[in-house]
Amino acid sequence: MFVVDTYDVIIVGAGHAGCEAALASARLGVKTLMATLNLDNIALMPCNPAVGGPGKSHLVREIDALGGEMAINTDKTCLQMRMLNTGKGPAVYSLRAQSDKKLYQSTMTKTLENQINLDVKQIMVTKLLVESGKIKGIETELGEIYQAKCVILATGTYLKGKIIIGDCAYSGGPIGQRSAEDLSESLLKNGIQLMRFKTGTPARVDRRTLRFSEMSEQKGDVKGHAFSFLSQRTECNKQSCWLTFTNEETHRIIRNNLDRAPMCNGLIQGIGPRYCPSIESKIVRFADKKRHQLFIEPEGEMTEEMYVQGMSTSLPTDVQYDFLRTIPGLEDVKIMRPGYAIEYDCLDPTQLTLSLETKKISGLFSAGQSNGTSGYEEAAAQGLIAGINAALKVQKKEPFILTRAEAYMGVLIDDLVTKGTNEPYRIMTSRSEYRLILRQDNADLRLTEKGYQLGLVTQERYTVFLKKKNDIENAIEKLKAISITPTEENQKKLKNMGTAPIRTGLRAYDLLRRTDLDYEMLRTQFPLEKLDDDVREEIEIMIKYEGYIQRQQEQVEKMNRLERKLMPKNIIYADIDTLSGEARQKLDQIRPHSLGQASRISGVSPADITALLIVLEQRQREEK
Amino acid sequence: MYDTVDTIAAIATPIGESGIGIIRISGRDAYAVGDKIFQSKSNLPLAKRRDHSIQYGHIIDENGYSIDEVLVLLMKGPKSYTAEDVMEIQCHGGHQSLEEILALILRQGARLANPGEFTERAFINGRIDLAQAEAVMDIIQAKSKAGLTNAVSQLEGKLSELVKKMRIHLTELITRLEVMVDYPEEDLEDITVPDVAEALQNIQKKLQILLEESRSGKMIRDGVMIAITGTPNAGKSSLLNQLVQEDRAIVTEIPGTTRDSIEVWITLKGVPICLIDTAGIRETADTVEQIGVSRAKKYLNTADMVIVMVDGSRSLTADDVGILEASRYQNAIIVMNKEDLPVHVNKKVLSEYGHPMITISAVNGSGIQDLQNKIIDLVLDKGIIEGKSALLTNTRHIDLVRRSGEAINRALDTIQNNMPVDCAIVDIREAWELLGSITGDTIHDDIVSEIFSRFCLGK
User: Fold this and answer.
1) N or C, which terminus of chain B has less Cβ within 10 Å?
2) Cβ distance B118 to B8 under 8 Å?
3) Are B267 and B189 in contact (CB under 8 A)?
4) pLDDT one-digit tens code per residue, A494-547
5) Domain range spanning residue B23?
6) Partners of residue A91 in chain B, C-beta under 8 Å
């Protein structure tokens, strides 16, 4: 056996999870290898060419606040950006970028290749090396051995990947790549349970064959945006998206050809996501809907390929041509790559702890789509956490765990490992119970200090963060210090701003609570300093929504009482006869980190939690 | 949500078991709540007063009215039963007084304690050991099981049905709001502010009705107050004795709780009933007739139901008519006594009052069974509760419904003040969760599932 090298951490896969995992691990100072089956496809976006959106942009900001790469890479490679949901409340403002796919990949590749402590190699991993419940390394298809203290699986949709178009099915990864055929067996042999999921993607079409006059143009915002707290907010509007709709004729063609759809002809067994259905399942499930919207999105500046968002399909290509050509603007369309469905193996995430380590094999972590999620952002978030925790394990430190009240990352991982998932999991803001606290604008205030303590946040980022924090405090103090009495002069100032007069004296701080006022308006009438955009936005949100935010903070504090009670590692649930049978079995399977996590397991009732509380107290007294 | 931080309160003495009632408040804000409701000569906040002291004063409601004259015991943590700050209010044991004070405390920010929760806290906070805690919990559990009669569980089934329906409306509303937030670019019909306001007002109305009717529902869990009225010699005391004899499980007889009557607790088919015997009232110098009428009127206002006794062996007197008139619009049963004697009363006149009529003999006990059945009929869904849902039978449920109503109100305020929809969702979700804890299902995944099943979404 040829042992090529020995690493602290090996990452299997170079998608969005793999990249963040590799960078985090290397940046924390441990010797790291990222293994990919194709060096040309690092950070590939096999689905739509976009980053962000509700919940997802929150994740990207959090990744950035902790010192991850996705936000910076997106800012560098975007074609346009838009802020969505601006009318619906600050907690759900969501930034979304259209990305230049190729540029996104090459930019990320360059970052990876230049990272100290990190090697990037083209390797097909076929086997995990496990000894008495501990990971020891990996074996490649060429029989080489790489030894490691920790291994992170970030295999995306490549495990036993199967591509399906119409009645044609073949083994492979997305976009004509190889699939990883042998690793699944190795996982099964080591007692890891796998699920079979499915997802799909629409056709890519030739820009030159589209009639743009038939569609409505969607430009990016003129106002500058940035995902990263380190990036300058500059306008980015290089390319447009185009909006158009299906019609009755489109639906008729699809309906007439349903018997040829893999979901009907039995070729697909995997479970697909409800939120990302193919156009054929949309038409079956929502038969009364007269039209479905679709966006034609640019894939990059160096290509004429365009992505038909909303039309994911695995119907045969003749049908794809037929129905696409019924759509306004697509009458002459030429397909460059047909839409397809992909089936793949992934881990049942309830086998993982909150640090994303498998409970069965010490040192084996898993992150991303291979944990049953979907989306680049969800993958990257898990990659970062797995990378951090693998490095911490090598350094014999306690794992880094974010709670549901601290980050969407906490919500995502807690949901996955506590409840599992029976379809590809997508983050949504409605999954968080503390949404007003977990905003994208305050991701740095929530997390950068933690990232700095970990050693992942650079001095540069930390300095920027401290300045923002300081500026916020000063600005708030200043607003509190300006008292406005109901003098004639002041009433006139209020009138100038178009707001109601005041009856009693109040502070500028209180005035800013009014929905018809903002900081810039106040600044025209009162002696206030000019603030950086992010500082100004932050204080406006903090002041205007103070009451709501405070109420959520109280909810968090209540829940924290349970979150802080940690379950002993050696607790034997089967022996606790005050628990219900179902609770005993579920608790033993999930092995929750805290009482809070235990309370979220389905089948564990409040009575069971009381019983656990009593057991914990008893143990504590015995120890004393 | 399971909770060990907030301040809890409950009536600590069983209903009808003593002339003095005790309400216990425990937790971080026990004294803050206390300061809002307790008025005494000293102006010091309760937290500043001497530990383990007894304070004399009045319980004052939000409008400044005195509810009761009380003694307050202060026991600061950790030297208290729960090892938290504890305040105990000793008030008059009358049911109404206790209930009113408790309701006031809950409105001022405490939460109703779950069964055994004081003991649980005493244990968690290290005050008592497990064996002690278990012993106490066993007693509490046994009691609450016995309290669950058929009548009660029947009504609770109806309640959860109703709450489930309301939750379906709320789920729908939340789903429509959430989908707008999570899928801003989908081709969906946006829900407008007036839509949201209307939906919230509808729910609010339903909750309000439920609360207003809660008093009649609560009778079933906490006891139905039945006043026995009638002119002297109509046989009130004999009837009382008959009803009491039938029921071997009398709790106790307590004079003086409402200061001028005798209350006797019995249970009929599992429903606790408090019989108020107006015969027990000391007679004054006023003419007997007038007292009879005025007493009847007084009880007509406070009792849940009235039994008007008439002597069937003689014609109706002016006093009989006075009492009957006063009971015209109340829940009442007319009991014609002295069946064993020749009938002289005009039944036709009696029937004009529209109340059910029962003929008995309080001397030999005939007709008593019929009367008991009639009382239960009225208490359940036929009479008293007719046309009303009357489903809120326990204080925990009332508390939850009240709190969800408050949350809905806040949500309405939010949208009417032009705050973004996201802020309103906080409170709508809270209302939804509170209602869910009545039926025992508060699962977040509901909403996510609902979003996917109702809307066509995706890339």
Assistant:
1) N
2) yes
3) no
4) 999 999 999 888 999 999 999 889 999 999 999 999 999 999 999 999 999 999
5) 8-147
6) 422
Same domain, B229 and B169: no
In whole angstroms, what separates CA A180 from the centre of its chain? 24
Helices A376-394 and A408-419: angle between axes, nearest 10 degrees: 80
- Same domain membership, residue B229 and residue B310: yes
Please check whether residue B459 lies inside any domain of the structure: no
For residues B322, B323, B329, B334, the Cα torsion angle rounded to the nearest 10 degrees is -130
| pTM attached to this predicted model | 0.77
Residue B282 and residue B398 in one domain: no
Are B305 and B206 members of one domain? Answer: no
Residues of A in contact with B452 (CB under 8 A): 274-275
| pLDDT score recorded for residue B151 | 46
Span B17-74, pLDDT tens digits: 456 788 999 998 999 999 999 999 888 999 999 999 999 999 998 888 888 889 999 9
- Position B343 scores a pLDDT of 80
Q: Which residue, B379, B413, B444, sits at the end of a domain?
A: B379
Domain presence at residue B320: yes
CATH fold, domain A470-554, is Arc Repressor Mutant, subunit A (1.10.10)
Same domain, B409 and B270: no
- Which class in CATH covers the domain with range A204-342? mainly beta
**In chain A, where the domains are located:** 2-198+344-454, 204-342, 470-554, 565-623
Global ipTM? 0.83
pLDDT for the residue B25: 94
What tokens appear for A235 in the block? 């306008």
The answer to whether A565 faces chain B, any CB pair under 8 Å, is no
* pLDDT digit string, tens, across residues A67-108: 999 999 999 999 999 999 988 888 899 999 999 999 999 999
Residue B93, pLDDT score: 66
Please indicate, yes or no, whether residues B294 and B248 belong to a single structural domain of this protein: yes
CATH topology of domain A2-198+344-454: FAD/NAD(P)-binding domain (3.50.50)
Q: How far apart are CA B356 and CA B335, in angstroms?
A: 9
Total number of domains in chain B: 3
User: How would you class B411 by CB atoms within 10 Å of its CB: exposed for 0-12, middle for 13-18, buried for 19 or more?
Assistant: buried
The residues on B that touch A, with CB distances below 8 Å, are 1-6, 120, 123-124, 126, 130, 133, 178, 180-187, 414, 417-423, 425-426, 429, 443-445, 447-448, 451-453, 456-459
Distance from CA of A617 to the nearest CA of B (A): 7
Is B385 inside any structural domain?
Answer: no
Q: Which tokens go with B193? A: 């502010």
d(CA B144, CA B148): 6
Instruction: Give me the mean pLDDT over the B196-208 stretch.
Output: 90
8 Å CB contact of A548 and B444: no
pLDDT tens across A438-482, in order? 999 999 999 999 999 999 999 999 999 999 999 999 999 999 999
Q: What is the pLDDT of residues B86-139, one digit of tens each?
A: 999 988 766 667 878 888 998 888 888 876 778 777 777 767 666 566 555 555
| pLDDT computed for residue B123 by the predictor | 74
- The kind and range of the H/E element at A134 are strand A134-140
* Class of residue A96 by CB neighbours under 10 A (exposed 0-12, middle 13-18, buried 19+): buried
Say if residue B124 is in the same domain as residue B187. Answer: no
Instruction: Give me the amino acid identity at B231.
Output: T
- A202, A551, A562 ranked by CB distance to B2: nearest: A562
* B245 inside domain: yes
Same-domain check for residues B69 and B114: yes
A415 close to A66: Cβ distance less than 8 angstroms: no
Which residues is B39 bridged to in the sheet? B58
**pLDDT tens profile A237-287:** 999 999 999 999 999 999 999 999 887 777 777 777 776 688 998 888 888
Mean pLDDT (whole number) for B225-251: 68
Higher pLDDT, B315 or A369: A369
CATH code, B89: 3.30.1360.120
**Would you call A173 helix, strand, or coil by DSSP?**
strand
